[in-house]
Amino acid sequence: MRILLTNDDGINAPGLEVLEAIAAGLSDDIWICAPAEEQSGAGHSLTLTRPVRLRKHGERRFSVSGTPTDSVAMALKQVLPGPPDLVLSGVNRGANLGDDVTYSGTVSAAIEGALAGARAIALSQVYAREGMGDDVPFGAAREWGAKVIGPLLDAPLPKRTVINVNFPALPPEKVKGIRVVRQGFHDYSRATVVEGRDPRGYRYYWFGLEAIEHTLDHGTDLEAIDEGYVAVTPLQLDLTHHASLGALAERFGG
Ligand code: MN
């Protein structure tokens, strides 16, 4: 089984080391291609307005001077000897729950893998609270990663489906289990803007992440994490709201 690993926190991210350890238990045909720098929040962006560089760090280890999507696309087109069976993206430092998924470079890198026909799984380690910097409790992901990925490998899923996995911010022995849940939503727009002045006196703005109030609807990823479970959510790339097709078509005489 050929596995491609990537990570939106960059080639040197601690979460990528965690993912490498997990993947080593699954196969010995493992390839790594990740952004050279952190790309959190990059979503599914593809670099079109400048060239990107591919750098080789080891026999099967590469970085790309671009986005997570660039990294997967580059791996598929230039690096791997053939198509991957599995694309694993993560383990992200921080949650990718609810509405996070469309901002998420981690989830989007997995989407790029799914578009290429691979089984694709995004993995994220939830922080106990925001602002912890590098102090991410990866223990839950490290211990529970293989238990989650194993049953997903041959699960019957249509093409163009991505699996989004989040690990709760708990020591591994405190994790209660694994729940398959739907995507929840946040109550508030999640980005805050901090205004400051640079050393030359010019104003700048910096988007930040503040504690988010969630609507913990039953059966959602947010609720599962809040209750101490690993959250597993299948996502579809078809964003069409099918129930609205008829009502909208009527507006245009359809
Ligand atoms: Mn990230």
Question: Can you walk through the features of this model?
Answer:
The protein has 254 residues and is of the alpha/beta class. The chain has a single domain (2-186, 216-251), classed as Survival protein SurE-like phosphatase/nucleotidase (Stationary-phase Survival Protein Sure Homolog, Chain: A, 3-Layer(aba) Sandwich). Helices cover 26% and strands 29% of the residues. The protein has helices at 14-24, 68-79, 100-103, 105-115, 139-152, 221-226, 245-251, and strands at 2-6, 29-35, 54-58, 61-64, 86-93, 119-125, 161-167, 177-180, 185-186, 191-197, 203-209, 214-215, 229-236. The strands form three sheets. Strands 3-4-2-1-5-6-7-13-8 form a nine-stranded mixed β-sheet, with helices on both faces. Strand 6, helix 5 (139-152) and strand 7 form a beta-alpha-beta unit. Helix 1 crosses helix 5 (139-152). The longest helix is centred in the middle third of the chain and has 14 residues, at 139-152. It starts with a strand and ends with a helix. The site of manganese (II) ion has 7 residues, from strand 5 and helix 4.
Structural class based on helices, strands and sheet pairing: alpha/beta
Distance between the termini: 48 Å
Total beta strand runs: 13
Number of domains: 1
What is the count of DSSP helices, taking H or I runs of 4+ residues? Answer: 7
CATH architecture tag: 3-Layer(aba) Sandwich
CATH class: Alpha Beta
The CATH superfamily bears the name: Survival protein SurE-like phosphatase/nucleotidase
Shape: globular
Name the helicity range: 25-40%
The kinds of small molecule bound in this structure are: manganese (II) ion
Which percent range describes the beta-strand content? 25-35%
Strand order within the widest sheet?
3-4-2-1-5-6-7-13-8
Mean pLDDT: 93
- In N-to-C order, the SSE pattern is EHEEEHEHHEHEEEEEEHEH
- Rounded radius of gyration (Å): 19 Å
Q: Biggest β-sheet, characterized?
A: 9 strands, mixed
What do we call the CATH topology?
A: Stationary-phase Survival Protein Sure Homolog, Chain: A
Low-pLDDT ranges: none
